[in-house]
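Aim 2 progress. For Renal dipeptidase family protein, the working sequence is reproduced below.
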Amino acid sequence: SHCDTKRNYPDDVMQAIAATGGVIGIGYWEDVTCDDSPLGVARTIQAAIDLVGEDHVALGSDYDGTVTTGFDTAELAALTQAMLDIGLTEAQIRKVAGGNMVRVLRDRLN
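Predicted structure tokens for this construct:
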């Protein structure tokens, strides 16, 4: 696991979710990424993609006020830049930034 905490799913559970067509939402707070900077979150996203594939990873910010994040929605461009900086393609970023969640919702609601 990229950031081994009891809050995070073990690798085998993440792989099982992906096997059903599901998506893993990556949070932005330090307790789940071990580094809540945009670069740290981007690295967590990359680790998840490496484990389950780009079609099964999404942003999972939990901007509901119950957790403190290193950046807010006004700074999502910094996360996008960090994902580009570590080598994610624009197509991968589109999937992670919403495309995968839209696909899952469409599949499940139809």
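The chain has a mean pLDDT of 89. This observation will guide construct design in the next reporting period.
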